[in-house]
Write a structure and sequence with these properties.
- The complex is a heterodimer of chains A (419) and B (494).
- Chain A is built from eight helices and 30 strands.
- With 419 residues, chain A is of the alpha/beta class.
- Chain A has three domains: 192 residues, FAD/NAD(P)-binding domain; 132 residues, FAD/NAD(P)-binding domain (3-Layer(bba) Sandwich), CATH 3.50.50; 83 residues, Immunoglobulin-like (Sandwich).
- In chain A, the strands form eight sheets. Chain A has a five-stranded parallel beta sheet with strand order 6-3-2-10-22, covered by helices on one side.
- Chain B has three domains: 224 residues, FAD/NAD(P)-binding domain; 150 residues, D-Amino Acid Oxidase, subunit A, domain 2 (D-Amino Acid Oxidase, Chain A, domain 2, 2-Layer Sandwich); 82 residues, Arc Repressor Mutant, subunit A (Orthogonal Bundle).
- Chain B has 13 helices and 22 strands.
- In chain B, strands 1, 2, 9, 10, 11, 12, 19 and 20 form an eight-stranded mixed beta sheet that branches. In chain B, strands 13, 15, 16, 17 and 18 form a five-stranded antiparallel beta sheet that branches. A four-stranded mixed beta sheet of chain B has the order 6-7-5-14.
- In chain B, 55% of the residues are buried.
- The chains are: A alpha/beta (419), B alpha+beta (494).
Chain lengths: 419, 494
Amino acid sequence: MKEITKDVVVIGGGSAGMAAAGEVVGKGHSVVLLEREEILGGILNQCIHNGFGLHRFKEELTGPEYAERYARIIEESQVEYYTGTTVSEIDSREDGKTVFAFSSEHGMLRINCRAVVLAMGCRERNRGNIGTPGTRPAGVYTAGLAQRLVNMEGLMPGSKCVIVGSGDIGLIMARRMSWAGAEVKGVVEIQPYPAGLTRNIVQCLNDFDIPLHLSHVVSKIYGKDRVEGVDITPLKNGMEVTEETFHVECDTLLLSVGLVPENEIARNTGIKINPETNGPLVDSNLMTSVEGIFACGNVLHVHDLVDYVSEESQRCGEFVSTYLKAGDREQQYSMVSGSNLKYVIPNRFSSGRDNHFYMRSLIVRNHAELVFSLDGNEVKRKKIRHIQPSEMISFTLKKEELADFNLDEQSRLEVSLIG
Amino acid sequence: MSNLFDVAVIGAGVTGAAIARKLSSYNLKTVLLEKECDVSFGVSKANSGIIHGGFHHDSSMLKSRLEARGNLMYDQLKEELHFPFKRCGILVAAFSTDEMRTVEKLYNNGLENKSIGIELCNHERMLNLEPKLNTDVTGGLFAPGGGIIEPYRFVFSLVESARKNGVELLTEFKVTGSRSNDESYTVESADGRQIEARWIVNAAGLYCDEISRIFDAEEYEIKPRKGEEFLLDRNASAHTDKVIFPAPSKHSKGMLVIPTAEGTTMVGPTAQMVDNKESSSTSKENFQTIFASARRLIPQVSERDIITSFTGSRPTLAGDDFYIEPSKRIPRFIHVAGIQSPGLTAAPAIAEYVKDLLKTEGLQLAEKADYDPCIEKVPRFRNLSKEELAELVEENPAYGELVCRCENVTEAEIVAAIRKDHITLDGIKFYTRAMMGRCQGGFCTHKIMKIICRETGLSMDEITKRGGGSWLVHKEVGDYPLRSRNLDGERQQP
């Protein structure tokens, strides 16, 4: 058993955890970073395609290159990090916190600290979550697992595949499987529009002549031992048009049907979860409902780009530092999502500084407007050229923009999308 | 001759496994034959895992008598075999006076079968026993002796115990032929292997009829009645303390809400006669039926909590009772057929019953002096306190290596499964629960495959999900002709 005492424990050594830990240590606090895999970097390590870092570093990097930049910062810093280490429990008390973790090298680690940052990332939704009928053969993989097998283990999950979901991972895997010699027979998307970035539709599907079936579902899986084929059915007005069902032979079905924050530790610690995001509810400092426990990155809500994860997590690191230093806490007020928004994060705002919000739309629209109103009075209005659920909206409300308004404890800032 | 056995038990489901273990306590040479690559891969892997409370049928039925007897044997079995089992109690909820009348009939069955502590409940008592019940409940029945079990873990333990006491297990032994002389039967498998046995116990589940035909014994037909179930996340708010039944219909015990022995929630099953014994397909219609029925019992049941669904088939016979009798056509052959619900509950009692039949028919039974009913207990990360774990990791560092993050399964437990011959992904899943949680193996499948390779010497493309043609990876990247971007061909416009 190993006993450690530090200011902060960061759980997760992916893009979020590394950015948060780097920021906290830079502000002069002591930090332990815990990562369950053998190397830092998280899911970036298997994303060997490029397109990362355009916002953050103004250049195009691969996933491992992006991870490497942050890993180097951690390695060269005073952050004490442990890989191959899994957290089992957070004991949160008034006078501090204890994080329990296990690894084969150190046995049980018992880490006493003042603040914890949750940065465990997310997991993939799977067949059970989308309820695809049919048999239960081998050969149904989530796209991320297939990506791991191909890119890191050098193994081919199959030779003829159909991909469900046009999210970015699905699209990237369509190209990856094609490059590796497999035949990708099509991508099936339930929505009438693609879920992934336009650049990925062009580069991953069109360039390989892979058909994209919009408004279609995989309605049945065939095969006893291994996948032998699937039925694909078009949708009209949300209903399956069964008579237009067609069959495609394949030995592999890859699922790219969304991501969900991994919040089991948060739940077990008694942290309140936002049912819209499946991540914790957080205040304007990204602190959860349990004092001293913060959350950032995909464990909070699923981001489109790693650049945003880093940005949010660095900000989280600043908040943690302020929390550790400051005695009195600033006043916070309620922040809610209004028309046409799936969610807004954070769920509180501060009046004394700029507030940065992340939002996701429920609608697809050109020329929409983002409207902030405080207790019914409009505060800010911004035109947006195009919105869709797959693209996160990021917006900073400046301190001065709230300066003319009177705030009391009941004050509520609402943000809406007007189509 | 080395492969002359006293008894060959055909089928390593819960019935065959319980019988084999029972026989292993006597000085007999017993072989357990299984067509799949691991045990419990048929009917016994996909069912509700209920230890029934002895009230569904009156005592005129054999299955009812064996159910009542079997139920009482589980506490001792758990002590010996360490499988997950909880006597959590069963509630049957009635929502009308008609349903209440059906429930009263069940209560009388329970009294007749000596179901311990069985009681009738009013509306208030029902809600006190299970606060999550639909408040429209009129009343119902409580059978505190009912419980839940992990059925595959039970079978794995039975087989481990049987093997420890000398039973030989032959997997991928699909019986396709038999010859007999005055003394014994020669049993042939599809791959050409043969064994010889003096006595045959036919515990082949869905295939009892085919085995009977192969041996030229009685003609009968096993009809599969398919059931579909959904597994919900362990955080699901629908998780109850007790198993909740609706008032039963004529053909089925109805669709239930089940708190599984390992903390998840299960809803189902449907009951649908099918022609194909291998049919394992799930459908959208069943999904809607199951959730509507389950929500009538526990309104908190939510589709959002679904992790996965599965189907299983009950092997039914005309008359719906068990058929456990010596053949009248051929000697030294016992049918153990039609073992549908409550077969899991009854299995230990069936084993006793079959042992008695064998004895009556002339098999010499002498108790084995060194019979050991207990197997080693494999520690599970998720069941231990931090202090116990800290100590365990010192002894065996593989307990510090968490492989399955959803169900908290360590490398040590996976290695234990492999050393007990569970070398497919499903075998390891059933033994350890790895890949059974909310991510369904998304994060750990590749790690488990690597451990299998390391421990068994198999190569990646030899690993399967459940044997046969259920391969997982085909070739290594690079074995395929690589394809480049189609820059010359005509592009489709986005």
